[in-house]
Amino acid sequence: MEKSLARYIWKNTRLQQLWILAVVAASMVPYFLSFDLPKQIVNGPIQGDGFEGPGATQTFMHIAYDLPLIGHVEFFQGLQLNRFQMLMALSLVFLALVVLNGLFKFYINTYKGRLGERMLRRIRFELIDRVLRFPPIHFKRVKSAEIATMIKDEVEPMGGFTGDAFVSPALLGGQAITALAFIIVQNFWLGMIAAGIVGVQAIVIPRMRKRLLDLGRQRQLTARELSGRVGEIVDGIGTIHGNDTSNLERADIASRLGRIFSIRYDLYQWKFLVKFINNFLAQVTPFLFYAIGGYLALQGRLDIGQLVAVISAYKDLPGPLKELIDWDQMRQDVQVKYQQVYEQFNVEPLIDSRIQELATAPVGALTGAFVVTNLTLSDDSGARLVDHVSVEIKPNETVAIVGPNGSGAEAFAEALGRMVWPDSGRITIDGRDLLDMPESITGRRISYASSDTFFFHGTLASNLLYGLKHAPMTDPVYDEREALEYKWHSAEAEKAGNPTLDLNSDWVDYKAAGASGPEDILKAIRPVLDAVLISQDILDLALRSTVNTDVHVALGDHVVALRASLRDRLRDEGLDTIVVPFDFDAYNGQATVGENLLFGTMKRPLMTNRRLAAHPYFQQLFRETGLSTDLYAMGLEIAENAVELFHDLPPDHPFFQQLTFMTADDIPTYQALLQKLQSRRFEDATPEERSAIIRLSFAYIEPRHRFGLLTNELME
Questions:
Q1: DSSP characters over 428-476
Q2: Number of domains the chain contains
Q3: Count of beta carbons in the 10 Å neighbourhood of residue 5
Q4: pTM value?
Q5: Where is the ABC transporter domain (predicted)?
Q6: C-alpha pair distances (Å), 604 with each of 408, 534, 585, 641, 663
Q7: Are residues 337 and 391 in the same domain?
Q8: Are residues 224 and 329 located together in one domain of the fold?
Q9: Buried (b) or exposed (e) across 501-521, using 16+ Cβ within 10 A?
Q10: How far apart are CA 238 and CA 234, in angstroms?
Q11: Which of 547, 551, 580, 546 is nearest to 563 (CA)?
Q12: What average pLDDT is seen over the chain?
């Protein structure tokens, strides 16, 4: 990596930087003209300079130049305008200059933003690329949360700074110099006053902001440490609960937050002190202009138009100057951040990029022997785990490496799987060093199954087939709009130094698994699932899953047909009373009241008994059918029986495990609610109280709870 951020930016964006600098230089011409035009408007048509006679006119837009070797060249004779016409013409030119300056700013800022985002994309990809090439031992020295925070948050300002790295000092410095030069041209002493204030701001403010940079660096480091500490808490939450150290962790986090608060408070104080001094210096200059410039105007040494033009020009001077000072602070701040990123990611030795090159061709089987020569492995502390071991493992041999914990057996296996690198010695296959072999060979022909497994966020199928996703095997089919969008994204990826690999391609190497495509991949991997004894687990997982009938259209019909076949089989075997199916024309006595109302089970956690009782649609339905009072009465009876039977039992009593409509914690709540509703009718209860009572009835099953509350009439 480049050690200097400025060199890194220039190396990757110099052509774009040169173009935008040329645009900035061109924008200075209309910017200067916009300062001079107010003076011409005030002195000319407004005060009448040059329009002394009643019908006097002046030439507008006369364009002629004296060119070397050519002489006088006239491009446009101009127009003769009277006083009013000249006022309107100059005003329209001023408006045109305002629009032109605005368009220049719009283009420059848009181009800067695009350039910055492209550079941010480049540096993030480069950092992640380096993470993929870190030596294995380095991952034991870093925290994943800190690395993720640096890539996600700490490099974010670098993208914004990329567009400003060379453009902002050129644009803002050019604007400030243009405005200052214009003021000096109008009046030397007023120009010297402005230059003096600018000099003080340019020298004093950056020096004061060094303290801000130091505080910002401390804030960044403490925030990153907090992120890593929070990651440790999440990863070790079981250990924390198991050892009753949650309050120790709270104390640690509180201490870190207190440190961050102190740094940020100092940062705010110093920041606003610098801002106060900067604003004060910016406001002193207009006071001097009004006082000294007004005095010169009274003496006749400065005309009104010049004074107005000077004040107007200075109005545009503090803005660029302040932004230039801000740019310098951002430059130093971003350089500090980049330096820290450089120190974290400039790891040696990195895995050679050629080892991880994309390979789409099939890889043949390894036919040579594993030859281990004088292999030495050490742990993090430097203790020898394997000391000068030599062995040859021939093809088709089954070898067991036996030893107690810490004996080096596991480390030796990791070395064969290229999970750790040797301190000395080498491992070869067919005379080729294992560490020099491409991952397209070792990753497809050497498998290492450790006790530490990782399940990537995604589907089960994606994780099962993860070891087959080495390269895009087929191109996706795009319509015309999608093809144009992909072409644009590919072009942007190239400009940002990213690969143009299409994630939407099918990356699964079906042939390597012995399949011809996605249709028969399950058949091909089924023996593997049986061999590692997880076929039944996957089947159980599938049976507990919800089928998306939009994707698996036929599967839903097969499941329904399977239910009918099961029912016929049970009837043929004389076991049809074991399962009571749902029937449109009958109440299912083995299901809850809620399941009978819904004609199925609730999809939790989207719907629960509590939500069902409070749902406006069901409340309206109960009122219209007259079920409200019946379910309310049933709920009251259930509450009275439950409170009477279980109120004096301890919360951990096994009876509560059989109680589906109420928990041990609900008993005191319903005990108080029954006392409140004892002499009140359904109409007198509040909606919340009705819902609390009615929801008890939804979990009631007559054959199970046997309170005698479900009559034939109510079931009908």
A1: EETTEEGGGS-HHHHHHH-----S-----SS-HHHHHTGGGEEEEEEPP
A2: 3
A3: 22
A4: 0.61
A5: 370-600
A6: 49, 27, 26, 27, 18
A7: no
A8: yes
A9: ebeeeebbbbeebebeeeeeb
A10: 9
A11: 580
A12: 81
pLDDT at residue 202 is higher than 80: no
Residues 6 or more apart whose CB falls under 8 angstroms from that of 227 comprise: 145, 146, 149
* Residue 177 amino acid letter: I
DSSP label at 584?
Answer: T
- Which strand (E) or helix (H) includes residue 390? strand 384-393
Range of the domain at 694: 593-714
Lowest mean pLDDT among 273-287, 503-517, 543-557: 273-287
Please give the angle made by the CA atoms of 84, 90 and 93, to the nearest 5 degrees. Answer: 145
Q: Is 86 a domain residue? A: yes
**In the chain, how many H helices and how many E strands?**
27, 10
Residue range 168-192, pLDDT digits in tens:
777 777 777 777 777 677 667 666 7
Please tell me whether residues 333 and 381 are part of one structural domain. Answer: no
Q: Are residues 157 and 244 in the same domain?
A: yes
pLDDT band of 552, cuts 50, 70, 90: confident
Q: What is the pLDDT of residue 560?
A: 85
| Domain end call among 420, 453, 486 | 453
Give just the sign of the alpha carbon dihedral 608, 611, 617, 618.
Answer: positive
Answer positive or negative: Cα dihedral of 239, 241, 244, 249.
Answer: positive
Question: Is the model's pLDDT at 294 over the cut of 80?
Answer: no
Same domain, 222 and 341: yes
Does 363 fall in a domain? no
Q: Residues 283, 394: one domain?
A: no
pLDDT higher than threshold 90 for residue 530: yes
Q: Can you read off the two tokens belonging to residue 638?
A: 């259930």
Say if residue 390 is in the same domain as residue 324: no
Split at pLDDT 50, 70, 90, the class of 475 is confident
Distances (CA, A) of 536 to 7, 351, 454, 524: 58, 40, 21, 17
- The predicted model gives 561-565 an average pLDDT of 89
Is residue 467 included in any domain, yes or no?
Answer: no
Residue matched to tokens 């964006």: 13
- φ, ψ of residue 108 to 5 degrees: the values are -65, -45
* Three-state secondary structure string covering 487-514: HHHHHHHHHCCCCCCCCCCEEECCHHHC
> Which residue did the predictor score with more confidence, 418 or 288?
418
Give the per-residue pLDDT at 572.
Answer: 92
Give the residue from 706, 707, 710 showing the smallest Cα distance to 596: 710
Structural domain ending residue among the three candidates 401, 424, 453: 453
Give Rg (Cα) of the chain: 40
* Cβ proximity of 702 and 709 under 8 Å: yes
DSSP string, 606-655: T--HHHHHH-HHHHHHHHHHTHHHHHHHHHHHHHHHHHHHHTTS-TT-TH
Q: How many CA atoms does the CB half-sphere of 129 hold within 13 Å?
A: 16
The predicted structure's pLDDT at residue 588: 92
What lies within 8 Å, CB to CB, of 613 at 6+ separation is 619, 690, 691, 692, 694, 695, 698
Residue 202 resides in a domain: yes
Segment 78-107 mean pLDDT: 83
Say if residue 249 is in the same domain as residue 394.
Answer: no
CATH number at residue 129: 1.20.1560.10
